[in-house]
Amino acid sequence: MQLTSREVRLLNALSELFDLPENSKPWEILVGLAESRGAAVNNDGTLNAEPSAKRAKHDAAVTGVRASEDSTEEMIDDDAEQQQLPPYIPLLLKDARSANEVMDGHKLVDAGDHEAFFEWMISPCDSARFFEEVWDDHPMLISRPKNRKFFQGWFSKDHIDSLLKETKLEYGTNIDVVNYKRGVRSTHNSNKDGSNHIADRDSVWDNFDNGDCSLRVLHPQRWVQSVWKLIAMLEKRFQCCVGCNCYLTPKGSQGFSPHYDDIDAFVLQLEGSKRWRLYKPREPGEHLVRFSSGDFTQEEVGEPIVDVVLHPGDIMYMPRGCIHQAVSCPDQHSLHITISAFQRCTWADFLQGCHMALKGVKGQGEVRGCHMALKGVKGQGK
Predict the structure, then answer these.
(1) pLDDT digit string (tens) for 164-199?
(2) How far apart are CA 218 and CA 215, in angstroms?
(3) Which pTM was predicted?
(4) Partner of 328 at 20 to 30 A CA spacing, among 94, 207, 316, 372?
(5) What distance in Å separates the CA atoms of residue 318 and residue 136, rounded to the nearest whole number?
(6) Do residues 191 and 279 touch, judged by C-beta distance below 8 A?
């Protein structure tokens, strides 16, 4: 097979990046990279990306963590940073600082300091510890009982109302109106007059106030500058595409069925409180998934390993594949923003992109994105 100059450059770059022998054949390079990461290349060229030995440790026994709304802060272990975490056991930390003792995250964003901003967002956990001990392996919850305004000013219920008044939000593209009752998830993307394209403000709020429906605003960074700046900072830090959705839920309601996502999620609680239940993967293939799940029944997910309430200022991290569900507390609405990162950013995706590029298939740009992410963040080669 005669290689083009582009293919030769790609092979040379791979050889240099991964310290491979010179003059390696394309197939040998792909097979070697796959096997070095616990994957296998099938005869037909597809990947069988089994987790490495480090990833297989989720098979070990897990223990549960429970907390009621009143005991969330008390269940935090202040000495957790001194402990070696067992597999898939959540890291629970408390930030005991008051508002006067904490830097302003908005000023860090305005200064363009993406490293300091991420440290601020997950403090008192630092980024080095996060990527070495938490990322991909454990959920993490940080409670801030003395600083409930930690995330103030990024996004609010008023922002949603302004978007409904001033922007033509399309159902299914920009906003979803959903609820979850008696084990069934329903979508209510329609207005009082029967139209179902542009969301009508009065119809949306009627479903929210009287229909116990949650509102999911997709990609609010398109319109809200503070959210756009937040996302831009994290993209610089992670060196990959970062997105977000915002979820507004009426008091005592649930919008979605138990499920898992194909992204690493950072949940920032902005208003009200919400009870979250997390579940371990049901089988090895659901750990560090590449694709999101459908809706699960309560019987399918079993008992939660985490049962906590997030209050304003709290943050929670969930690895991709972590099954979860959430219900707002009975006294007030809940608003949180879910930041998504590292989607399709695995070694399997990287190798698949390389294979596609060598075959001349469109989409080889994915290789560059994966390469940057895998190379740019410490620990990202997991």
Answers:
(1) 999 999 999 999 999 999 889 999 999 999 999 999
(2) 10
(3) 0.74
(4) 94
(5) 8
(6) no
